[in-house]
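Batch 3, record 17
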Amino acid sequence: MSTTPTRPPTVRQPTVRTQEEIAARVKALEAIMIEKGIMTTEAVDRLAEIYENEVGPQLGAAVVAKAWTDPDFRERLLRDGTATCRELGIGGLQGEDMVVVENTDTVHNVIVCTLCSCYPWPVLGLPPNWYKGPQYRSRIVREPRKVLREDFGLDLPESVEVRVWDSSSEMRYWVLPLRPAGTEGMDEQALAALVTRDSMIGTGVVPAP
Amino acid sequence: MNGVHDLGGTDGLGPVPVEEEEPVFHAEWEKAAFGMFSMPFRAGFFGVDQFRFGIEQMHPAIYLLSPYYEHWAHTVEHFGVEKGVLDPADIEERTRYYLENPDAPLPQRSDPDLLAFVDGVVKAGASAARESDKKAAYAVGDRVRVLDSSPLGHTRRARYIRGRTGEIVLAHGTFIYPDSAGNGGGDAPEHVYTVRFTNSELWGEETAEPNGFVYFDVWEPYIVPAAGTEGSAA
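Prediction for the assembled complex:
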């Protein structure tokens, strides 16, 4: 080490890196942090495995299906999303304080984080790229009906009120979608299989079986 | 700061690029970058608000054009260097090495405590709620206006709600104040409220979509009583 470490300028020259350059740089950072006792590859792999295989929208779908079949649970879920999800062992990082908002025949809810990428991980897993990208974040608060119609194929009549929840604090909002018609005889497990990630973001609805 | 990250209401960015059957991670490096929030957080690099502020200081053009998890790597580098834990010359040298030798192995080390931390933090989380003696100055039903000044540091007071008037619809209690913690200060807890704005209040009658609202969470210092309602706050 020949020079004293100096703080790099906050803004580097605006050159977009290739995937190879990013991969090499991230690997360099990882290598240093492994040597410094901050990271391990086994912990990186474990964390990735959790969000690839264990924590994802199937958990939110189970909560939704229970809310559709158990009116007391539904009422508790809308009153205290965090505690009620905990009843099913669901909760944790990026969902420490959750608020569930309910779609009805006259109200449609949709979530966004215009400032970064806040998303209820314990029930939906990690967000898709489009949720974190500039297009969705810029437009969904200004022209939600147009985005839902043109980008997600969801055409809402003007009589339905559209509520956009911008997750600017550490509260994590997500949507209890409408139960589709024709599902009266279905049990919780079969109902959960119908519930999509996008229906809990609000960029979709649960399709009838 | 009035940064590019503050995207609400920006026009011209085009259609939402929806990817069918999208994988959770698109490349191996994304998994490592994803690990660079929780593990450096444990090592004291940053809290979540500082983590965000590091990302906000990326060059605006790169912010818009780079893959999402590069943002995470950027903020880790920013704070790692600032804390003196990461040496810029060392980062450059190793980056060159891995660019030329992409399959070269990483150093190997086992750390059962770190593994236990990962499982523990995913399940328990790290709530930003903080106890405070502060009494809430507002209540559900109050009409409030958002301050319209432009702070230089980290804030969650997005530009599109500044100066706008809405109604408090939820009161959440006291949480870490990002305008303090994100700028290197203490937790300084403040009350958080959800404010409901009509579309026309935000965008004007001419372009606002009909029959809609935007709900936005504010910390108490962001708001004042709406014009004509002064003195109504407790």
